[in-house]
Amino acid sequence: MDVVINLLIWAHIMALVAGGSNSVVGPVIAARLPTATPDARAGYYSVMNRLAQVGKAAMVVLLVSGPLILWLKYGGVGQANAWFWVKMVLVAVMLAAIIYGGINFKKAQGGDAEAGKRAGVAHKVTGLAFAGVLLSAVFAFN
Fold this sequence. Notes:
Oligomer: single chain
Number of helices: 4
Strand content: under 5%
Helix content: over 70%
Largest sheet: none
Distance between the termini: 21 Å
Order of helices and strands: HHHH
């Protein structure tokens, strides 16, 4: 069973890295979009769309592996401390910001400049929530 749990933790960490990279790269690319040439903008959108696909896959892995680890390693949420619940709230904030940002990013690709600004704010919220998730996880799981 330890091997299964360790593989789940490995998958969880890999997904954190893959998904978390979007929190860093997304705002950097988004900041360049308003002044980019049409060709460069198309390239940026292509990269952002690929990152979004990776991010969605990473989120699925996180949402599956997290509860499995919690159940198999810790026996459920019975022993969860306050930091764990802070982490869960921040995961929910992150997920909402990702969805909101994704919707607005698609609108921005269609030419809606205001949606692009909203997507940029959502990227920043996602990044801050991601940092909070990592910090609270450190305290939740020692």
